Amino acid sequence: MTHNLPEEDEEIEPVAREVDLPKYAASYSYPDEDVFWRVNRAWKERGWLTREEFVEAVDWKSSRARGRAGRNPSIVVERVTGLISELEGEMPQEELDRFRAKLLMSLDGVEVPVASALLAMYQPERYGVVDRRAWKTLFGRDKAPFTARDYVRYLRRIRELGAEVGLTPREVDKALWQYDSEHRSGPLYT
Fold this sequence. Notes:
Elements: H1 14-18, H2 21-27, H3 33-46, H4 51-61, H5 66-69, H6 74-86, H7 93-104, H8 112-122, H9 132-139, H10 148-165, H11 169-183
């Protein structure tokens, strides 16, 4: 059974098209970026994550979710993260993106931003991390919370921008995040 995503979409904010994405991606700075790449290597080598790797990855994105993430049984984490790998090519890309996000969200401690971080760790050449900063730069407005459909729309647009300038979705999300970090006026959370 196919679940087509609605055609509703958001236009990219003009400022996002004017951002020097390669420059901002290169200047991106986030604590413990080595965690991102350590989890990426483990997932690629084994095809799934251990509970410890999963908790470390969740903590990288949201330290508040660490405790809930740690309550997931090891076998469940291994099976869910393994299924992410096994689903390659089984459905159209946007349906796969949405399904993968929702599958990860079945784990305690995982909402859309954490699911997006996990997917970016899994395949940074295909996925990016969604958060308030990147969304604001891309679409010109604040947003939270995010749904899996929001994430698919976000992915569609960061892939589009990345294709225009030769960057991966992960590099585009880093650039959007860094741009907002340097240019936002006003509070991030209200």
